[in-house]
Amino acid sequence: MRRSGQQHNRRIVVTGIGLVTPLGLNAKETFRGVVEGRSGLVPLHKAPFFLPGYIADDKRIPTASKASMLQQLVAAMPGRVVGAVIEDTEYDYYYDMESKDSVGKRRRLQFAPTPHEPRGFRFCARAVEEALQDALLLHPSAVAASPGSALIGIDDPTRVGVNIGMGIPSLSDVTDVAAHLTHSLVSASSSAAGQQQPHPADASTSSRVHYSKINPFFVPKILGNMAAGVTAIKYNCQGFISSSVAACATGAHCIGESFLVMREGDAASRSGDAAAFAQFLQQQRRGDATSTTPATTTPEKAGVVDVMICGATEACITPVSVGGFSRMRALSTRRNDPTAADGGEGPATASRPFDVSRDGFVMSEGAGILILEEYAHAHRRIQSYMDAAPAAARALFDGKTPEDFMYGEVKGFGVSSDAHHVAAPHPDGRGAETCLRACLRSAGLLQDPQHPSALYVKGDGGGAAGEGAFSRFRVGYVNAHATGTIGDEIEMGAIRRVLGSSPQGEGGAGGGRVVVSSTKGSLGHLLGAAGSVEAAVALLAMKENVAPPTANLKDPCLSAESQRDDNILLNAEATALSPETCDGVISTSFGFGGINTALLFSRIGSTSSAQPGDGKETN
């Protein structure tokens, strides 16, 4: 039987963040951009990778012809605005090319065993590297570490896991292979009919239609789990590995699944049977003179892993995907004019979450990676890192504790299904509301039946209130999924019902107002990576005590009930947060197929249940 008090005593914290977005190639630039309300959206013709690779790489096609083809493709799309990642040549992550590091040495960047990696792999590599460095798990000079390189402070690689997903695999590789084969087939047929060949330089027709036209690494390049696989290979992560796929909730789902795996662990660890069995063996062997087994047996560590590299990456701005979403009438189409003045109706203003003038989402790309770590493990590891720092770097850690290097604690994860439609949310928002409430329950937060929006958390005996006392828990910020579509108002209704003011007028979510914003106004919709990027933004908002605005919000599309709810603030400007009114933040992510997810992060110490060395952790 599971022992009481053993179920959720592992605290999971976030020790590293890595981001690649249209606003920047790191977390700092991205967060600064969203707080300032800047736009990372550009006209589609400024995304040169939109031209299919089989055309762009064909040296027989003149440059002018390629430019003309790109213009034709762009003109054929109803929605001609995207959130494109511009890869800085100073930090080139095309792995088959050489680049210079900060001291001018030539080096070759390699990550996966395949040439010409998909853009999504490159985004993932950069975000993972930044997150590991941010978590003090990877030395800043270890950029070009070889596959299988050890992480700092990790003695057992089986205790490190990876969960990185993709909403949509590399469509550009799929279309390139299909185009090569079909073009060869057409060329061969034209030759047989005596027609002129598109490319006279081609060799005999017998060699054109053949499977050898396919890159040997084509299959690995399009597998949804390969970003996780190559990450595990590079950093020698031998523990739990997964690649959750949940459409536009993929990134959030990867984080949530990682959290559950780390918190729950295995049955023997949860129940305490592993430690008890180790003691049993010791007692047995003390009386066995012939035993060669050491008298001290290390108890099995709690949980499955101590560290998880998790999140998602996405890079599917291609003619196929843009055309497909256009056919669904999901993309914004009213603000394509690149000549429109700033602040008017140009591409920079195309993404308008929560605004009455919204007309669809803007497709974007990038990656978001979090490092999740068991609290006691992180505390010991970071303290050891600080103690071992050379004298020249010691000043960086003066006056700091390991908690200063933690962004927050993962407290809850909720999932639900609309069970309604493949692409549209339930009109009542029942799925969004269900997943929000599930997230609160997962975090151990309790609701007053007469005032459902007032949240409480049970004390652990460490504070003045004592064991069993209850205190208010204030959700100060929600980074909403809102994409600039019909679902925005539906989502706001769900947020209001769960976190808004109660009918009696008592302040919701613990007594303080809840700031709500969607950073898709600045970033666009990163599809599968949206959830992990926005979870990172929510954590940074809590850490820096500032909630980013909803860019391009001028006329909110709120229902009458939401407009009357003084506890919900839909912000169009950056809004200050405070530890006194914000104990935690929530990030919501929804996806096609009706999947809804919500993640809750709290400040370190807001709901502490264990401290380093108090005996509650068994690892």
TrEMBL record:
One of its GO terms (cellular component) is mitochondrion. Residues 9-603 form the Ketosynthase family 3 (KS3) domain. CDD domains: KAS_I_II. One of its GO terms (biological process) is fatty acid biosynthetic process. The keyword Acyltransferase applies. Residues 194-207 have a biased composition (Polar residues). It holds the Pfam family Ketoacyl-synt_C. One of its GO terms (molecular function) is 3-oxoacyl-[acyl-carrier-protein] synthase activity. Residues 188-207, 333-355 are annotated as: Disordered. Keywords: Acyltransferase, Transferase. Its EC number is 2.3.1.41. It comes from the Eukaryota. SMART domains: PKS_KS. Belongs to the thiolase-like superfamily. Beta-ketoacyl-ACP synthases family. This is beta-ketoacyl-[acyl-carrier-protein] synthase I. It comes from Herpetomonas muscarum. The lineage of its organism: Eukaryota, Discoba, Euglenozoa, Kinetoplastea, Metakinetoplastina.
